Amino acid sequence: MTAPPAASPAAPTLVLDGVAKSFGPVVALRSGSLTLAPGSVHALIGENGAGKSTLVKIIAGLYQRDAGSFEYLGEPVDFATTAESKAAGIAVIYQEPTLFPDLSVTENVFMGRQPTLSFGRIDKKAMRDEVVALFGQLGVDVDPDRPTRGLSIADQQLVEIAKAMSLDARVLVMDEPTAALSGVEVERLFTVARALRDEGRAILFISHRFDEVFDLCDTVTVMRDGEYIATSAIADTTVDALVRQMVGRDVTDLFPKVVAPVGDVLLRVEGLTRTGVFHDVSFEVRAGEIVALAGLVGAGRSEIARAAFGVDPYDSGTVAVAGQVLKGGDPTAAMRHGLALIPEDRRRQGAVLDSGIARNITLTIRDRLARRGLLTSRAENDAARTWAARFEVRAPSLDTLAGTLSGGNQQKVVLAKWLATEPRVLIVDEPTRGIDVGTKSEVHRLLSDLAGEGLAIVMISSELPEVLGMADRVLVVHEGRITAELARDEATPEAVMHAATHSLEGAR
Amino acid sequence: MMLTDAQPGGDRATVGSRALGLLKQREVGVLAAFVLVVAATTMKNPNFLFSNDGFRDLLLTPSLLMLLAVGQAMVIITRNVDLSVGSVMGLTAYLIGTVFIDMPWIPWPLVFLIGLAFGGLLGLVNGLVVAYAKVPSLVVTLGTLYAFRGINVMWTGSDRINASDMPRGFLDLGTEAVWRIPVITIIALAVLAAAGWYMTTQRGGREYYAMGSDPDAATLYGLQVRRRLITAFIVSGALAGLAGVLYAARYGTVNSQVGAGYELQSVGAAVIGGVAIFGGSGTVFGAAIGAFLLMTINRALPVLGVQDFWQQAVVGALIIGAIVLDRFAATRQERRLARERESARV
Question: N or C, which end of chain A is more exposed by having fewer CB within 10 Å?
């Protein structure tokens, strides 16, 4: 059918050039460019937030680009829905499997395009037979009749792959398909990917694991901060060169954390485990220290923080603040002992968007401000004014609704709110996500000041420069376990990336 | 009690067959509860089942609710809810009566088409607002529940349609039976069979389940979520319209309050019958059996000598029990799967 894959440049299957996408004020993709050739496996790499997933979603037709050009099979295209891109022959396997938990594996593979008999009856036997055949080809041992609820992530991923294969697609996009797979499963996936490549299909492979990129792919494109950086042939590049392109700046100068005197241990987490989520997590943080929890999105960092604070339950282990062990699952007690958690999702969990700045800041201390159960606006405003001034919250008045502030100012309000409780330990989850560069460094300066005043700070961040610039120590989390502890001078981008993508030495 | 009987603990089947087994069990369990209620009541008073009237009422009373429950189940499976069905039923019943008064010459079978079309139209209004305005269906249909009822009251006033206004053949339909099975029940069962067929064998039906199971995934799959949503509401409205027509035929009088309260009973029937309130699972058959159980309990408790007050409480307990049972089963399954994954990893 198709010509054998040639080394000579064949007509590209898919070309994206200068593609941009913003969500309100947040620019997710500045300028994405990508050229996929038939019979080729193309790697797309970059840090978290580099814009890879946004690019994928534009290819899939889930998002529509704001600018730039998109050509498929030599024709300019505008996919308005995922159904259109699918019909055109583009199959996408997303980072998180998107399956219907209540439906059977077979139904999941064929949903929306089931083969039919007379009267539009779904041909269940044909569907099942094809799934059995596909699973045979993939070497998968999953009951095609069981519901997908409760399948392991690896099995769900394999169902996704079977789905993409049954589409007979010309372009197959795999957004970190191997993140949850074991070695054997990865090898099996690669065999399938190579077979598909040899049939002349174009494959886009997104991964954080360099060994896999070098093993499977022939071309690699690097993205950073929503922009295209470079495309090179795998044979012409090295891991070091790729990491340099991914990080792309002198990280140490960007966010200087002032060295503060290190005091007593204020937070001690020991053997914290929640079955299926994180395991045997132990670390301690001292006064004046900023400890970063680094790792990939979905590694379990936020879950650890939430469990330590008591929002989520845990199965075993202890959390102690200044030597006092906290009762699990009780955030109020955690607050009383001086623990504060600033969640990742500022808009939904951090700030009350429909309330004013003053009310937001005093939310955590309103019991203290109330006189005989009554809370006056004056008491709120007095208390809030100090904090708002200290954090330089830029707003017309203290009544300004939090929802109308910029991301950076919202974050300052949330910080002020928690600092009003006078905590000893502060856990911040992605403190600068979605914040412009200028405010970013202000938030960093604040965190650095707070550490200088003797707070113990745990910072969860997916941005490597932030981690390297701010942290005194870096704990790298991979698949729910701490796989490395790096001191400031040991923490290089390579070391962190390596630990974030590999299990503990000898664990497997 | 009766519901917990339906779910034997700790068997050792595989996860897949167990989950499927659970689904099947739910319908079987509710059916068993129904049989139990009928048996107990019949023992107290044999007329409940064995007299001609008793047998007819047993089948006839739940039939209208069954129609609504089938439509409701289809809507709930898509992770929505249609609270306007009682009002749609009432408004359609009054429309049919008016049609007979204003156009006495109309061949009566035609009113079925009118009822279906009118109910479907009201359902279309719900569907369009839910699909395009992106307002939760709970709010939209709560609004139309009052709006449709308001129109009904405005239109009817204190009037009522009487049996003498409607043709003989039409009214006979409400009392006739074939092989002792009331015609209305036969119609309801036919609708149930068609809906069941659609939900299990047609793409559209399967997509309802998919949408309810994970709405985001449905979008990623490129399913026509909007169109399916609108269709589900049209079907629910049309079935409520049909129930309105049958109400007129059965009772012969129509005032402005026909169908009031049916909306919550239809939700209750679906939930008792195993339709998950957050969509994605359950069957129209379960909802239909749930309707039978609900209506029969209402009639059986007085016979068994249970006070008025307790009758409502029993129905409430049944609904809460059904939801708690679902929740309990789901949590247990989740925990076990987390453990299994854990042991597989080592």
Answer: N
